[in-house]
């Protein structure tokens, strides 16, 4: 397979870049588009640090050849905040002290965003399942799970307020 | 948040704190949740070159030939680095605080002492070319018998693997970091019971989510700017300068953002070679461990083997404790001599025992070199000591907490290191813990106090 041009909508913006057959979505995001929020922890799909949303679904971007997802929409941690306003998940991670070294945080947040998009009222078990592919070696899982449950409450409260407005 | 019990310290400090007791946000959290925290590998540089290593295939072998001609033919490969390119090839990270000898080569010379030891570095235009180049290096070995067991390594008939002449670190002329206090054999002779158990632990890999690495960028004035995820920026700066035989002022380390360390990023494993490669090529050079390297060759917590022999009276007093402790340093010292000293400093645990004898050995084997990790030296010793306390208590049909309280050190006791204990709180901690979990202690034990001299109360 030769080098080809790949078109992606990344965080709502149309992007085009050259991809070799071995160029992963992770390396394209980091090295060609300058989006370094997704991290390389293992390069074998085991740690989840590179998690982004591909057409809404969480993927480990280190295992996705960029050329195979031409025309897709990609969401990364950089696209979550609206200006200074953080997403509910981001704010809940801050308020719940759910970060330590911070290296797993972007991937963890993207897995949480994907969960809440399809399940607005998850149980703790469902949160555990959703982040089961994301390793936090600082082992701060308990505050992370609490923060995701808190973010879900915030989203529901916001939706409730908007419905009564 | 859980209630903090400060009763014990009520006389020691005022409680009008402005920070303690409040929730203070960490300063880096906004970067963490927005993906904007700049980790070492989040920087890109034009013309960046990549460095990868060809590593030893054997635990212990003589190197008879190194042929890197095929590596140089790989498209994109720029340079091959051998030990001859390292200005001061022998080092030991603790040389900065006067601990030697320098026992480890940056790149292997005529032999390898562990599987995965670096032999040749390959610098290339791309990571893929560097990996392919490293895989094309051909090393011919004469295999030697490997020493893989700490006690075997200490036997006189075992071959010596280290050039300093012993399979153990020498502490001021001695084979181990030693404690000699009282007369342990007399203590055993007077004891009603003798208990001896063996404890052992496996190596533990820190497995930081961000692997060890650095990017070295040559500066216009000739200095080298090192972007590193080291946990020990000044250790890295000074050790790298010594290896390069360059003044410290030639180097600048930018770090402090660490994607998980846990002690695994205090050795100086990547910066010297990346600096040499950057100097040779006059290009920015990145040297980042793969996940496989992080698991296979980065220093783990040492495996330890600990024997504890106790002489105990019928009433539960420990009158003698002898400890033989072996830290498996692996092939090179790194921080392990310090770890074994910390183990000795921690013995015989927070208990007042009149007769103590300990040998803490820092032993060399043909295993992956071990080093720092979260309380290294102390953590496994504690596991052994507290397991021993439980085992002895159960054997004597004494409540394990009462057994600890009976032997707990108190203010004024002379410890095995000939220091007078002060500020002790083990008794109160156990009493509080017992109350919290509903473990009933007899009045005699509830009345004990760290500040009441032994014998005055219980």
Automatic annotation (TrEMBL), chain A:
Keywords: 2Fe-2S, Iron, Iron-sulfur, Metal-binding, Oxidoreductase
One annotated GO molecular function: 2 iron, 2 sulfur cluster binding
Domain of life according to the entry: Bacteria
Organism: Asanoa hainanensis
InterPro entries to which the protein is assigned, alphabetical: 2Fe-2S-bd, 2Fe-2S-bd_dom_sf, 2Fe-2S_ferredoxin-like_sf, 2Fe-2S_ferredoxin-type, 2Fe2S_fd_BS, Beta-grasp_dom_sf, Diverse_Oxidoreductases
Domain 2Fe-2S ferredoxin-type: 4-80
Name of this chain's protein: Carbon-monoxide dehydrogenase small subunit
One protein family per Pfam: Fer2_2
From TrEMBL, chain B:
Record keywords: Molybdenum, Oxidoreductase
Highest rank taxon of the organism: Bacteria
Entry keyword rRNA-binding: no
Domain Aldehyde oxidase/xanthine dehydrogenase a/b hammerhead residues, every copy: 34-145
Pfam families, per database record: Ald_Xan_dh_C (PF01315), MoCoBD_1 (PF02738)
GO MF term set: iron ion binding; oxidoreductase activity
Keyword flag Oxidoreductase: yes
Entry protein name: Aldehyde oxidase and xanthine dehydrogenase, a/b hammerhead domain
Organism: Asanoa hainanensis
